[in-house]
Design goal:
76% helix; mainly alpha
């Protein structure tokens, strides 16, 4: 009885805890549902075209399902109508270019594979069963090996890989099935018709109902990346020259602005290549009838990534362990702020030129940029001791570093004096043999040689000396760090300033690629009276940056 009572109490406790967990889950269910609905709303709010695409897919599946639901259509097509449904699910993509790419690949792959299978069937139609089997097996081997090898070619892999896969699948299905099934040719005809119906519905929905063009996405994303880099540089410079540290919430918001600005640029390689490929499949839907240079947008994206690495380095200057004191940064605030403002101004002008499909302003590199560079150079030269770290006699400046050196030297002397005593705290060593006096008689025995004891003593002394050298080495490294502390405080700003100058150097490459894009794409010429107003309206100057001061 005594054992049953604790068991019952344990069972009751487990039941109670289980009920509490279930109750907690039931109470948390509305919160989880609310969170899921909030995420669903956010996905549609970020890009409303996703909602339109979902509705287009639903309408397309409904239309193609009529082949099964309506009796007259089902009698004319039969069970092959399911291939139309599968085609819509597989082919209908988000953009027009992606749908055209997959739809035409699927249609052409099916058509060519069916035609080749019919030709093989025609060749072996009057032959014997053995010869037919050998011929079909050889055809399957040759076609399968050849198509698989062709898929490794980069151009085919990039543009026609899906069509090659459909060709291989359809060819094997028809060719191998025709050996046992006599009606396989009829089935192949029906499947081809239903696949054509599915592809046709997909193309009509993509081209005519709220079309989404990959080329437009690539064009807008390129302009957005330029503007994002400008925002990141502006936020970096503002945060670096803040007089006081920001609160956590404000700091997190600034971090998001900086990070999101260059993250989109650095992660855009695969997206740009995919959009450029899909855009090459799209028909000419603008007033420009010439072939649009979508591949050159990929080159512009590559140059922007190279420029984005400098923004990452600039952001890294805000996170270094050794920071230049804020009063010291203030000495160089004005030229750095003006230089960053000119860089942001150029990037904003490039973004506006791509967005409006016009050439850049002839004065995109103004004299203010050169003046800001010269002012920064003069400001740095005016403080030689901060960056050279020595006076006229070639010795380190003795400010705070002298006090640090004295304190560290005292600390070293204390450690080195205490190091030998640390071995004597427990026992005293014999002055002749170096062995503890209390253990002298216990160590000397009839079977113990004096040379063995001498070797043990030397090992202990060498170990003690090694530990002392390690302590001295660590303390000496501290002396070097403390001695050059005043010099090292200026190094983070030197890195910050050098990155700004590197941005100006890489800015030329960005301008050249954008101008070449405008020439190839036949952008309209720059109109000072119209485009200047457009830039003033839509391109914001950095809030805390002084731009154009000479």
């Amino acid at each position: 009885m005594s054992n049953r009572v604790p068991e019952r109490s344990m069972e009751m406790d487990e039941e109670g805890s289980t009920k509490m967990k279930m109750k907690t889950k039931v109470l948390e269910l509305p919160k989880k549902i609310k969170k899921i609905l909030k995420n669903l709303w956010k996905v549609g709010k970020d890009d409303p075209r996703r909602v339109k695409h979902a509705l287009k897919v639903g309408v397309s599946l409904t239309l193609v399902s009529l082949l099964y639901l309506m009796e007259p259509l089902f009698k004319g097509i039969g069970n092959s109508a399911i291939w139309a449904v599968m085609t819509v699910v597989v082919v209908l993509e988000f953009s027009v270019g992606a749908t055209l790419c997959k739809g035409l690949n699927r249609g052409l792959g099916t058509l060519i594979a069916g035609s080749l299978a019919f030709f093989i069937e025609f060749v072996v139609d009057d032959s014997g069963k053995v010869f037919r089997a050998i011929f079909i097996g050889a055809s399957v081997f040759i076609v399968g090996a050849l198509i698989t090898y062709l898929r490794f070619i980069p151009y085919i892999k990039k543009n026609y890989d899906y069509g090659m896969l459909i060709f291989l699948l359809t060819f094997n299905l028809i060719t191998v099935s025709s050996y046992r099934v006599d009606t396989v040719i009829k089935i192949a005809h029906e499947r081809f018709y239903t696949i054509a119906m599915g592809v046709g519905i997909c193309l009509l929905m993509s081209l005519l109902v709220f079309p989404i063009w990959s080329g437009e996405d690539l064009h807008k994303s390129t302009a957005a990346k330029l503007q994002g880099l400008s925002s990141s540089i502006e936020a970096c410079v503002n945060e670096y020259f803040e007089e006081e540290e920001k609160e956590n919430e404000t700091s997190d918001l600034s971090e998001d602005t900086i990070y999101n600005g260059y993250k989109t640029v650095l992660d855009s390689k695969s997206t740009d290549e995919a959009l450029a490929m899909y855009a090459s499949w799209e028909p000419r839907h603008t007033r420009h009838c010439h072939r649009y240079p979508w591949k050159h947008y990929v080159k512009v994206g590559s140059v922007l990534r190279q420029f984005g690495y400098t923004v990452v380095a600039l952001h890294g200057c805000l996170k270094t362990e050794i920071q230049t004191p804020r009063p010291l940064r203030g000495l160089f605030k004005d030229p750095c702020v003006r230089l960053a403002g000119e860089i942001c101004k150029v990037l904003s002008e490039l973004a506006a030129s791509i967005r409006n499909r016009r050439h850049c302003s002839p004065e995109i590199l103004s004299d203010s940029l050169q003046v800001a560079l010269q002012d920064l150079n003069i400001a740095i030269k005016s403080q030689p001791k901060l960056f050279l770290g020595s006076d006229q006699n070639g010795t380190f400046s003795q400010g705070n570093s002298g006090r640090h050196t004295t304190n560290v030297s005292k600390h070293i002397n204390k450690d080195t004096n205490d190091a030998p005593n640390s071995h004597q705290t427990g026992t005293r060593l014999d002055p002749n043999t170096g062995t503890p006096r209390g253990e002298r008689m216990s160590r000397f025995g009839p079977n113990v040689s004096f040379s063995r004891l001498r070797a043990d003593t030397l090992e202990r002394r060498s170990a003690a000396a090694t530990s002392e050298r390690k302590i001295l080495r660590q303390q000496l490294s501290m002396i070097v760090v403390m001695t050059s502390l005043e010099f090292s405080e200026a190094l983070p700003f030197a890195a910050f300033a050098s990155i700004l100058v590197e941005m100006v150097a890489r800015l030329d490459n960005v301008i050249e690629e954008v101008e070449e894009l405008g020439t190839i794409a036949c952008f309209k010429e720059y109109d000072n009276s119209v485009d200047k107003k457009d830039v003033e309206v839509r391109v914001e100057k950095p809030s805390d940056l002084v731009v154009g001061i000479e």
